[in-house]
């Protein structure tokens, strides 16, 4: 529901900001959730994510190590496939592997064997 109205052409960080705003707007509709996670806490955590994202993006140019990016094609929480392609353009020694049938919790799914993926790559 939070993704409704978020344009596909936006940068990943802009998408996350819009989705985060939409999630914040939805909180009143989930009264039980609002009791568990106060709006102020959610806003604080989202600001931390935004700050960490800006810091990381400003230093990607310095990464020279070999990087393997794993992305899920059916990730309904984040546009991980688009983010993988963005990182491939920014990191000089980057390989991506997109998993067509996996979701957001890629590394927790039974069909995923990280050691095999690394060896195959």
Description of the structure:
The protein has 121 residues and is mainly α. The protein has 2 domains: 1-58; 63-121, no CATH class. Helices cover 48% and strands 10% of the residues. It has a two-stranded parallel sheet with strand order 1-2.
Task: Kindly summarize this structure in a few lines.
The protein is mainly α.
Which stretches are poorly predicted, pLDDT < 50 over at least 5 residues?
A: none
Number of strands: 2
Strand content: 5-15%
Helix run count: 5
- Taken from the alpha-carbon principal axes, the silhouette is globular
Structural class assignment: mainly alpha
Q: Which helices and strands, and how do they pair?
A:
Blueprint: H1 12-26, H2 31-36, H3 39-57, E1 67-72, H4 80-90, E2 94-99, H5 114-120
Parallel strand pairs: 1-2
Helix pairs in contact: 1-3
Main features:
about 120 residues, mainly alpha, 2 domains, two-stranded parallel sheet
